[in-house]
Design brief:
This protein is α/β, with parallel strands linked by helices and 293 residues long. It has two domains: 8-129, Quinone Oxidoreductase, Chain A, domain 1; 140-278, NAD(P)-binding Rossmann-like Domain (Rossmann fold). It is built from nine helices and 14 strands. The chain has helices at 8-17, 63-70, 131-151, 168-179, 194-199, 213-217, 234-240, 262-267, 282-290, and strands at 24-30, 38-43, 51-59, 81-82, 86-91, 94-99, 114-118, 122-124, 159-163, 183-188, 204-207, 224-227, 246-249, 271-274. It has a six-stranded parallel sheet with strand order 11-10-9-12-13-14, with helices on both faces. A five-stranded antiparallel sheet has the order 7-3-5-6-8. A three-stranded antiparallel sheet has the order 2-1-4, with no helix packed on it.
Length: 293
């Protein structure tokens, strides 16, 4: 545990939303899937064994939060409930981040002034890291680390294609893949985002949609494709992948429904792998935290 105390600015943020221990807070609540959230006051329960009360300062907004609000993730979750998968705040005078453990899906989340959360969902923030920044890096950092290392097993001999390389997770994926010594290409649909991908270490950036992906790749034969897009990109990616290549899917921004030639998958012995943060076990989350992800 890293410990430390929040900066004066962080303390002021927390104090501005938490004046006394009445356990009455304002929260963003989901009452019906597909409908706008309602900002309302709720009474927090007394923390039970294994739970802690965290005073929250900032919360992140992730795709999983939208999917949850729409009902495509955790449709069986309790209603109404507070949404929010990750946030940063203060616990016992020290800065922390909270996420996972069913927050916002199986139980009330962290889009609130304070929340009662499982102790396992709490990680300390290193000294000097601002709570605003800490709130936005948890899911992004964990996803990128696991996609590159645990699932994709990217090494220095790999040729990597990152689809959706200009996104929040995509830029982190490019950086981590580059750090392994692999050759990394990044894909984006916007020429304006080329520079930020290059700054993360991409050896080349291609600006294209699925229709011209094969043409833009040319002779580049990736051994690993890290895919945040899905949709129409899957077919040309399978065609481009090297024999025994690995396709790691961790998002479907271009669409969840795909069509591809199954023969390309088995004839080239391609591994199709998926990553979803909500499926992390507690042991996996503990390894993540100890690695500093």
């Amino acid at each position: 545990m890293l410990g430390g105390r929040p900066s004066s600015s962080n303390r002021a943020l927390v104090e501005s939303v938490w004046h006394d221990y009445e356990m009455i807070v304002r929260a963003a609540r989901l009452h019906e899937h597909g409908e706008p959230l309602k900002i309302e006051t709720v009474e927090l329960p007394e923390p039970s064994e294994g739970e802690v009360l965290v005073n929250l300062a900032f919360a992140a907004v992730n795709p999983i939060d939208r999917y949850t609000a729409e009902g495509s993730v955790a449709p069986e979750g309790p209603m109404p409930r507070t949404l929010g998968f990750e946030a940063a705040g203060v616990l016992d005078g020290r800065p922390v981040v909270v996420h996972g453990e069913g927050l916002g899906t199986a139980r009330d989340g962290v889009w609130a002034q304070a929340a009662v959360v499982p102790r396992e969902a709490v990680s300390d923030v290193p000294e000097g890291v601002d709570l605003r920044e800490a709130a936005a890096i948890g899911v992004v950092g964990v996803t990128a680390w696991n996609v590159v290392h645990d699932v994709g097993r990217v090494g220095s001999d790999d040729r990597v294609l990152v689809l959706g390389a200009s996104g929040g997770v995509g830029t982190a994926v490019v950086s981590l893949a580059h750090a392994t010594g692999a050759t990394v290409w990044g894909q984006t649909s916007s020429a304006e985002k080329t520079r930020v991908i290059e700054e993360q270490g991409a050896d080349r950036v291609i600006v294209t949609g699925p229709a011209r992906l094969s043409e833009e790749l040319g002779d580049f034969e990736p051994t690993v494709v890290l895919d945040a897009l899905g949709g129409g990109f899957v077919g040309p990616v399978l065609k481009a992948l090297a024999v025994r290549g690995r396709l790691v899917v961790f998002g479907t921004s271009a669409g969840p429904e795909v069509t591809f030639n199954l023969r390309q998958l088995y004839r080239k012995r391609i591994s199709l792998l998926g990553y979803g943060g909500t499926a992390l076990t507690r042991d996996e989350a503990a390894r993540r935290d100890s690695a500093g992800a």
